[in-house]
Amino acid sequence: MPLYEKQSTLAEVIAAANLIILGKEVQIRLALACLLARGHLLIEDLPGVGKTTLAHTLARLLGLQFSRIQFTSDMLPADVIGISIFDRERSEFRFLPGALFSQVLLADEINRATPKTQSALLEAMEERQVTLDGETRPLPEPFFVIATQNPSSQIGTFPLPESQLDRFLLRIELGYPDRKAERELLEAGGRREQLPALAACFTPDQLAPLQRQAAAVHVSPALLDYLQTLIEATRNSPLFIHGLSPRAALALLAVARAWAFIDGRSMVLPDDVQAVLPGVACHRLRLVNSASHARPEDIARLIHATPVA
Q1: 112-142 pLDDT tens trace
Q2: I want to staple 279 with a disulfide (CB 3.0 to 4.6 A). Which of 128, 162, 170, 244 is the partner?
Q3: Beta-strand runs (E) in 134-228
Q4: How far apart are CA 18 and CA 16, in angstroms?
């Protein structure tokens, strides 16, 4: 598929998703950039703003196998990974894969599960494989986790540990729709019933080359200098308990490349880094005064205070 056709198809994905998730094009583009960068997405927001619908929409438009797990406090790791049962006819154990073995996994309300169950995703998200009963099993390609979580102030939640949060390439918030989008929603009703009618714009085989092309978008030495300056600014800032790690720096670079690729450009600009930095940084940085996570406005101030050249 020629490059211009690929960019046109990516635009079709965004346009179709905009018909389901009203007024949230930036968040849709970030979610798509996360997938192109071979990362995983965390969506944190109040119930009822469209987190689950966004996950369903992306899976259908990209033609990917989809499964969903509703996390609860009594869930066990085996409910996520799967379980081995004894087959009497064959006199051997047989593995029954869990919902984890899919191309898009929606981990719904992940912070309602205990830390033990949350940790069942760690190896899968980092290594794209799971180990059970001494045997390692690869996961499908592509493998994309979209986790949703409610604000930690709500009853019955278990905060995700730092190691788990760091496995998410991006964190986004959907927020309330603007007045125009909400009015359209009220007049036309909910959009989830339109999901079965969505046609896939890609096949899984077409997605892998796109991910490779996104990873190959050119980055100049000057852009790397700017990116490093931003990373160092988080480490030296008195606002944060600690700064961004080298893994976070790699994540920022990967998402910036994917963001530029979606825009149809063959090189990364400082604007691309600035656009994706809040999504990469906020869940990885904690504020000194409150110990809560950084807010987009904190990152905006850091960007404003950091010269491009």
Answers
A1: 888 888 888 888 888 898 887 778 889 988 8
A2: 170
A3: 135-138, 144-149, 170-172
A4: 5
User: Rounded distance, CA 181 to CA 233, Å?
Assistant: 37
Q: CA-CA distance, 207 to 279, in Å (whole number)?
A: 23
Residue 4 in this model has a pLDDT that exceeds 60 = no
CA distance 255 to 302: 19
What are the residues whose beta carbons fall under 8 Å from the beta carbon of 206, sequence distance 6 or more?
1
Tell me the whole-structure pTM to 2 decimals: 0.89
Q: Tell me, what amino acid is at 197?
A: A
Q: What is the mean pLDDT of residues 27-33?
A: 94
Question: Strand pairing of 135-138 and 82-87?
Answer: unpaired
Angle at 133 between CA 128 and CA 137, to 5 degrees: 25
- Per-residue burial over 73-83, b = 16 or more CB atoms within 10 Å of its CB, e = otherwise: eebebebbbbb
Most confident of 2-11, 18-27, 278-287: 278-287
